[in-house]
Design a protein that fits this description.
alpha+beta, Dna Topoisomerase Vi A Subunit, Chain: A, domain 2, 3 domains, four-stranded antiparallel β-sheet, about 20% strand, globular
Amino acid sequence: MNDLCSLIEQHAPTRLVRVASTKGGEYAGPCPWCQGKDRFRVWPADYPRPRYWCRQCGQNGDPIQFLRTWVGLSYHQALETLGEKPASPDPPHQSMVHHTPPMEAWQDAGRVYTLYGEKYLASKQGEKGRKYLEKRGFHPETWQEARFGYSPGKKFDGRVWGLQVYELEIPEGILIPTYQGNILWSLEVRLLAPPKGTDPRKNVLGSRQYLWGADSIDKERITFLYESTFDAASGRQEIPGYSHVATAGASGCRQARHIAALAKAKGLVVAYDNDEPGDKGSVFWMNTFPGSTRWAPWAKDTNDMLRGGFGLSQWADLGLAKAVPVMDKWEDMERERRREVIIKRLQLERSLMAEASRQGWPRLLDIKGGQAAYVDFITYANMMTLEHVFYCLTKEGEVRNGEGSPLLSG
């Protein structure tokens, strides 16, 4: 079971400190939901399951409930994130939650720090960061386009960032912003030398999850989907002409906003890590977008391929050779489905026109809302259910919209 305090701090804008030894240890901090300063309590060692509770707004639950309520995962996705096996596969579109961007104060402070990090990386003091990125296989043009920077390690007053904490600490490492247009969704710090067995990726408190590289998605280009920003940046550098997008992990970015953005792509190649979590995470996107293709890297991930000298362009060519026929077949199926819908629609319109002509109602004057305008029968039928239309029409030609406003025949 994941440590509940770490799980909450990873996803929510709060920091927890130990305040008592109750039930194996009691931790307190600002509530992610109501922003109450000290009413949020967490018991990570509680039996039979770790739990949290806000004494002000009443939010409470265990790790699964937190991932469902705050992160927006479904029950099965939460189980997989925690390393627990669900009893059955999770259906697509289970988690259609809209998350809003960070507050404006956080974005303003984040933009300033992003610019500072870019300048720092380009300066003499940023040599350590540049050498690290070169070791990862990146060219200067790549990290400049991606707006990578360097965080030397800073402490701020969290209230300046709009947070309910007095101290905000941003660790030392490569600073990676995630933008959607001018909206700054997150700041990630990639630690240069993380402790063994720990995740090198640390999100700055207040960050919200979003697709890195989302602005490159369009209907004319195939999108490669990766777990991490370094993997997506590797693809962007070595495989031009395509969109390269990262989802902040194998189970990240599954909310409605993210799905809608990826739906704009011409097609999807899921290039998650070549391991069990990557394979499991790929299933969600292949179920959500049936025309997508799973194409695993030839190493653990695409950045490992870049560093190891594997041919990323050759890998992509073979993946596209597999993916494009699948996408073409799916497009043909979608085209046929749309054709059938249009045919049924035309058949319905013809039947409506025939009935309108038989009853002598070729045109209607719609004055609902005080604005008079002639509309044909089909336009009116589109506005209302078929049953309601025939219920409202009378042999004298007078129509009422169900609320008393007259619609007079032309």
